């Protein structure tokens, strides 16, 4: 019997990053093992996470993105940290593996993400395709 595909959700407000991420999956044949969904906002991500039928096994999330706070749209690292904290403190979702996927390479962001329960912190950059593939393959072996 064939194993069901693992669900991966990419949350990033940059369309080029979403397209590149999807192309990496396709080019390396990962679409045979994984069902990749990409969304551009925290609110879209919340819909997928809340529904057990669409809930991902792994989430790659940007850090600094627009989000709604007190009825206003703000852009800050609070967006990614808020999503991570919400996932890791909810018994229904805390087993989801979360990887912060950011253009910011500051130690304080990395430290905070890992302290909140992120499995890894990947920096967007030249090595991103290789780092992404290596990380996904490490999840397969666990």
TrEMBL record:
Keywords: Phosphoprotein. Residues 7-139 form the Response regulatory domain. One of its GO terms (biological process) is phosphorelay signal transduction system. SMART domains: REC. Pfam families: Response_reg. It comes from the Bacteria. InterPro entries: Bact_response_regulator, CheY-like_superfamily, Sig_transdc_resp-reg_receiver. This is Response regulatory domain-containing protein. It comes from Candidatus Yonathbacteria bacterium RIFCSPHIGHO2_02_FULL_44_14. The lineage of its organism: Bacteria, Candidatus Yonathiibacteriota.
């Amino acid at each position: 019997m064939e194993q069901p595909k693992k669900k991966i959700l990419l949350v990033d407000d940059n369309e080029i990053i979403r397209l590149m991420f999807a192309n990496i999956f396709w080019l390396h044949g990962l679409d045979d093992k994984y069902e990749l969904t990409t969304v551009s906002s925290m609110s879209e991500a919340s819909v997928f996470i809340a529904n057990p039928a669409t809930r991902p096994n792994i989430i790659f999330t940007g850090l600094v993105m627009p989000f709604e706070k007190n009825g206003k749209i703000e852009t800050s690292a609070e967006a990614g940290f808020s999503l991570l904290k919400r996932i890791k403190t909810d018994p229904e979702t805390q087993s989801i593996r979360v990887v912060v996927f950011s253009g910011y390479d500051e130690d304080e962001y990395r430290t905070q993400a890992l302290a909140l329960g992120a499995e890894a912190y990947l920096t967007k950059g030249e090595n991103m395709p290789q780092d992404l593939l290596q990380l996904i393959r490490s999840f397969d072996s666990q």
